[in-house]
Amino acid sequence: MKIGFVVNDVMTEQIGYTTTRLAMWAINRGHDVWVIGLGDLAYDPDENIRARARTVPPRTYKSTEIYLKTLQGKSSIKERITTIIKYILSEGMSTGNAARSARMR
What are φ and ψ of residue 83, in 5° steps? Predict the structure, then answer.
């Protein structure tokens, strides 16, 4: 499964943060995990939302400290990805979902 975690800033994430622990847990279970900082999101002229995302080499990480040092270090894998946020925003508020959202307010 591909999983993306959006955080304030990848470089200021800390060992005890829930997102760090969840990302490491998912990596250790074989998922494709990318971490994206808010400042790494971009709305491009072609109307796609893209992000500069980071991941780590696939292996088992024994501690969040090792995982985070790898994610924030030179051995992290950096890639510009196209996200599905545009689809979620356009399709996620269909008539039924909009009605449910209105009732929940």
Answer: -100, 170
pLDDT tens per residue across span 26-59: 999 999 999 999 999 998 898 888 899 999 999 9
Q: Residue 42 in contact with residue 85, Cβ under 8 Å?
A: no
- Which residues, including other chains, have CB under 8 Å from residue 50's CB and lie 6 or more apart? 41, 42, 44, 80, 81, 82, 83
Residue pair 31/3 in contact (Cβ under 8 Å)? The answer is yes
Domains and CATH numbers, the chain: 2-104 (3.40.50)
Looking at this protein, which amino acid is placed at residue 68?
Answer: L
pTM of the full structure: 0.76
For the chain, counts of helices (H) and of strands (E): 4, 4
Strand 2-7 relative to strand 32-43, pairing: parallel
